[in-house]
Design brief:
- The chain is built from one helix and 15 strands; from the N terminus they run βββββαββββββββββ.
- The chain has a 15-stranded antiparallel sheet with strand order 1-2-3-4-5-6-7-8-9-10-11-12-13-14-15.
- It is globular, with a radius of gyration of 26 Å.
- The two termini are 47 Å apart.
Length: 324
């Protein structure tokens, strides 16, 4: 009876930071973390807390004049209560991140004065996940399919900031492979380009471009996706604001069971702060939200689709404190 099950949870962490001396600008610390959440544990304070997890982690952080590094290694397992009817999955994760941010305003007529104040990040993640314990029936047959997945991801992210606008670009490569079946291998390459432009005090626009290529070993297939997006935030008055997002996605694929397609999407939200909460009295917002999506398939055997929806809602807002 699950209603009568009980479980415990704990979380411990320790960090050592040496005392800094001199003007070297070097800061570093090292730490360990251990936590366990029982299989049937439920937190009223945090209902979204995932149950049935045990985590052990070590980490090192360092920073020197705008150049920083973070290194972490962790192991996570489930079925922490050793239940006989559940398998156990173990996940090992190693992460490395290198960051550089310019801490001073670049001199005029220099490279970074033209490109913008830079913030550069190099990330690497290595994962190994496998089922380390199975469950067997009375005939010694496994009840769950064994799996052992390994993967890695490397990403280079760059952003450049000016006073009223910024832009960014990034590239990444992610690979996942089954150690039990080499044909289950997938490699994904991603390219991103975006900008954030403040037109004036009331209008901000954000154009984006994304390109993704996925290659699979199972069918020697390739899928290419390009996404163009444009989002805008508007402050019409002190009490009326809005957001509009336009998106077009094109996919070309020869993967098994896939079809080339074009998807156009429009979403919007407009908010009127009708009555502000104050003097222990609630306030109200009037919200108009809507979306429209049009999916066109190149394969005539696949049915195109168009969907749209519009909602008008009244939102109750409580004052942050009794003094308001």
């Amino acid at each position: 009876d699950l209603l009568n099950e009980t479980a415990d949870a704990y979380s411990l962490s320790a960090t050592y930071t040496p005392q800094q001396s001199g003007d070297s600008g070097l800061f570093w610390n090292v730490g360990v973390e251990s936590s366990e959440i029982g299989t049937f544990f439920i937190s009223l304070a945090n209902p979204n807390l995932p149950a049935d997890k045990k985590l052990d982690r070590v980490f090192v952080n360092a920073d020197w004049n705008g150049l920083s590094a973070q290194l972490a290694s962790a192991k996570e397992t489930d079925n922490v209560d050793n239940l006989d009817d559940r398998p156990r999955v173990e996940t090992r994760l190693n992460q490395l991140a290198l960051n550089y941010s310019l801490t001073e305003t670049p001199p005029p007529n220099t490279l970074f004065d033209t490109l913008g104040v830079p913030s550069l990040t190099l990330q690497y993640t290595d994962t190994d996940q496998q089922q380390v314990e199975n469950v067997y029936d009375s005939f010694n047959n496994p009840l769950y399919a064994d799996f052992h997945l390994v993967g890695d991801m490397m990403a280079l992210l760059n952003s450049y900031s000016h006073q009223t606008w910024s832009w960014n670009w990034g590239v990444s490569r992610a690979e996942q492979e089954s150690k039990l079946d080499p044909t289950q291998r997938q490699v994904t390459y991603s390219r991103d380009l975006g900008a954030n432009v403040q037109i004036n005090q009331r209008i901000v626009v954000q154009p984006t471009y994304q390109s993704q290529t996925t290659q699979t070993a199972f069918d020697s297939g390739t899928s290419d996706t390009e996404i163009l997006g444009l989002s805008s935030q508007f402050l019409f008055t002190d009490t009326i604001n809005g957001q509009i997002y336009l998106n077009q996605s094109k996919t070309e694929s020869n993967l098994v069971g896939s079809s080339d397609s074009t998807t156009d999407t429009l979403t919007m939200q407009f908010t009127w702060n009708w009555i502000l909460p104050k003097n222990k009295k609630p306030g109200f917002d009037v919200m108009l939200t809507g979306s429209y999506q049009d999916i066109d398939y190149d394969n005539p055997a696949t049915t195109d689709s168009k969907t749209y929806q519009v909602f008008l809602s009244l939102v109750l807002k409580l004052p942050l404190s009794s003094a308001e």
